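Sample intake sheet
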Amino acid sequence: MIPIKHLFHISKPIKQVFEALSLPEHLSKWYTTIVAGKFEHNEVVTFEFKNLASFKFKIINLVPDKSIHFEIIESEWGNIGHIMKYDLDENDGKTRVRYTYEGFKDIDDSFANMNYSSAKYLESLRQFCQKGIGEAFGSKNYRS
């Protein structure tokens, strides 16, 4: 398998970044406006991209203020079983985010598209945490 990996820093405390990753009301500000579910280990959450797609994820790892990992369990896009990982630690007074998306067999168009989309949403996460305004899909701030 070939993973997508991104490493970046957010100038906010780990607790705040973890909340942005694990509270539906925060995710709806930087990822997609429609988020539903209970953010606890082994629970299922839904991310809907209105008029585009809906994904169901199972939370397979949840360590407060440290990491959250999601496995795609329902999708129209052939990515069932793929895993998204957000791992956090402190580095030089900032929160370091290690993002990994696992499940690709080839570096193809699907890989390239997800790599670009991941980077776009990770920057939205940073902007939400640092400035209070993200670019969630479906929001007035979303760049299509």
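Comment: The chain has a mean pLDDT of 96. The beta strands are 2-10, 34-37, 44-49, 53-63, 67-74, 83-91, 94-104.
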